[in-house]
Amino acid sequence: MDGFFQELDRRYQDGDQGRIEAFLRETLSRLEGQGKGESGEYASVLNELACFFRGVSRYAESADAFDRSLGILERLGMNRTSQYATILVNCAGLYRLMKQGDRAAELFLRAKTLLEQTGKQPAYAYVSVLNNLALVYQENGRLEEALGQIREAMTYFRGQSGSEHEIATTHSNLAAIYLQMGELDSAEQEIREALAIYEAMEEPDDHHAAGLSTLAAIRARRGEYPDAERLLEQALALTERFFGRNVDYAATEHSLAIISERLGRRENAAERMKEAIADLSRILGPDHDRVRQWQRELSDMQGGGR
Description:
Radius of gyration: 20 Å
Largest sheet: none
Number of strands: 0
Strand content: under 5%
Distance between the termini: 55 Å
Structural class: mainly alpha
Mean pLDDT: 92
Number of helices: 15
């Protein structure tokens, strides 16, 4: 499988979503032709396909692929392995994005318990559990519990050789919590730690955009709108490179629209908002609550309501 992951990494770096999906589907077809449609290998590739669908905001297809992957491992009696726990983590991340926080927390906690019981805690999987639980708690306003998970992740790193990716993600998530708490200096210190790691990486990282967006939010809270706009434009380009025009891309467009409005560029703000609405509507549907909220904001911009 090493060759598979190397090729997959190359395709992600190329940023062609069509070629990534084609490669994953071709690999699954090849494994089926070899009689490996019920193998751990097949489950692993399905997990990668599910993660791809999650990244490009094709949530229903992602959920189906995760279910199929987990089902294979269960039938193989591998539902108490670190591989199973890792896929649970990825699946839980999908439910977090779908705003199903209770379901996400349930799966994250199952994965955490399983990793602890196996005695084999891959740094990526275990720290991903802690970071994602922190995000779930943060989104539910449970900030102290979120901080507890991040502190546990930091403690874990002291005894493990964690990769740069997990360390950067942990700093980035801690920054987002401090930002929500209004502690801007602490938030900026943490996000600078994360961005320094991302910028030193040999290849661009798909989480770099989130870090840039967090720093942009800090700048905006301080009224430094031109700098916030510059950072958001960088985040937008990185998001499109890795995932195309997904939900995060639309959210960044929305943030750029708000910044344009605050800079007094109302016409530009309205155009940005229209683009954000079009992208989000394509993914979530025109009747989604978030789409309707953005449409109300557009109406305010066009009517001078703000």
